[in-house]
Amino acid sequence: MIALIKKYLQDGEGVSLDYKQSVSSAAKIAKTMVSFANTKGGVLLMGVRDNKSICGVRSEDEKYMLDMAARFYCRPEIDIDIREHTVEGKTVLEVLVPDGSDKPYYAKDELGDWWVYVRVYDKSLLASKTTVDFLRRKQQQTPVSIEFGHIEKGILGYLSANERITLMQICKMFNISRRRASRIVVNLMSLDVLRSHTTEKTEYYTGV
């Protein structure tokens, strides 16, 4: 087994690595591509089962599906790099997905709707509106200047004594709308004083 593939198998799936037996759906593979592009890039290893055994793929069929997913099921398009390897006599594709330069990236689902995903551990999760707004703000690369009022100070003060806070808690604590709370959170994240954490059930924030 070539050293590179062996290392991927030793590392296991995570934020920047995902195993796929094959491309059963362009929409599903686009979801993973987008989650990588919105986070910090990653590698799709095609022709590998979840238990790390090599099953191989039909090279040209998979390349066609991967290219279609990147071009027509990702918005903006994602410029992937597909490298072919022969492992145990079978074809394995190493698909390099870059850290996106035009975030946020959207993936089209089976119904034709577009969604933003981010990579959390070894899963591709739907991004919250707050996360999408933050990705947009970060992409603009404009200097962030905000006035620290009692709400901003209150959030950071709360986090100095508590591990985490949610958007709903912020709304209740300061009696403000979800929209305003989200805007304040995005500002604090842009200043690198607040960090977002996404799970399958909720999103919460911690101090940096």
**Amount of beta strand:** 15-25%
What is the CA-CA span between the terminal residues? Answer: 42 Å
Number of domains: 2
Task: Give a quick account of the main beta sheet: strands, pairing sense, barrel closure.
Answer: 4 strands, mixed
CATH architecture heading of the largest domain? 2-Layer Sandwich
Question: Would you mind describing this structure in some detail?
Answer:
With 208 residues, the chain is of the alpha+beta class. Helix content is 39%, strand content 24%. It has a 4-stranded mixed β-sheet with strand order 1-2-5-4, sandwiched between helices. Helix 2 (26-38) crosses helix 3, helix 4 packs across helix 7 and helix 6 crosses helix 7 (178-190). The N and C termini lie far apart (42 Å). The relative contact order is 0.13.
Keywords:
Methyltransferase, Cobalt-precorrin-4 Transmethylase, Domain 2, 2 domains, alpha+beta, elongated, 208 residues, Arc Repressor Mutant, subunit A
